[in-house]
Amino acid sequence: MADGCAVLLTIISYILVVLTFPVSFFCCFKIVQEYERAVIFRLGRLVSGGAKGPGLFFIIPCIDTYRKIDLRTITFDVPPQEILTKDSVTVAVDAVVYFRICDPCVSITNVTDAPRSTRLLAQTTLRNVLGTKTLAEILSDREHIAQSMKSVLDEGTDPWGVKVERVEVKDVRIPHEMQRSMAAEAESTREARAKVIAAEGEQKASRALKEAADVMADSPGALQLRYLQTLTTISAEKNSTIIFPFPMDILAGFSPFAGGAKEKNDLRY
């Protein structure tokens, strides 16, 4: 019975279109843009063939209704969400989501408002995903978190004809007390690293000095040359009188008593 009434109403509508052709032309033909699609319902039922467009399409007045669907990428900000992390730290995190409608017919028939539903799902997904992460993971691994959110959102919005293209975590705000603690921890870590580097430098310098001392011990002439070089450097940098001990070993070869003293020492022994 219902199908018969639908056929009868369709025939009557066609007759009216033909009888009022000059005027009905402007009511029967519609235009959608390249980035739009038209979902047509005839007597409450979805017209076979899917969405129409882009360009010109035909509808029957009185029995056809249609809705335009924008296929361009839609961007929205997820409001800051108060999240308790896995290590019991309260943070405020916001994000941005990029999505588009990939199936116009499904987005109309399966959900009341696809964009609004996607926004609400993004908020809950943000809380659920970040609730399983520690504060360190949230701060250092945003890319992985964004990919996880994208996968969960894409899976949830697929029955709505929505495709989530990208998710980005914008900002992570932590309490001021935690910021001071993290700053103190970072400063302590830097100081410890500086001490380790300084200790390693001292160790390397000590090894180099030991090697130099071994070389000078094997060659007394090298020690004397180093001594004279040090004196030259001091005299060039400081314009003052410097008193230093003169090495007696240098005068040993020039002393007239050096040989006799040596012979007496030999005879004594």
Automatic annotation (TrEMBL):
Keyword Membrane tagged: yes
Main localization (coarse): membrane
CDD domains: SPFH_stomatin
Residue ranges crossing the lipid bilayer per the database entry: 6-32
Keywords: Membrane, Transmembrane, Transmembrane helix
A Gene Ontology cellular-component term: plasma membrane
Protein's UniProt keywords contain Membrane: yes
Band domain span: 27-186
Compartment(s) where it occurs, according to its Swiss-Prot or TrEMBL record: Membrane
Entry similarity comment: Belongs to the band 7/mec-2 family.
UniProt cross-references to PANTHER family, sorted A to Z: AT06885P-RELATED, BAND 7 PROTEIN-RELATED
Name of the protein described by the UniProt record: Band 7 domain-containing protein
Organism (species): Plectus sambesii
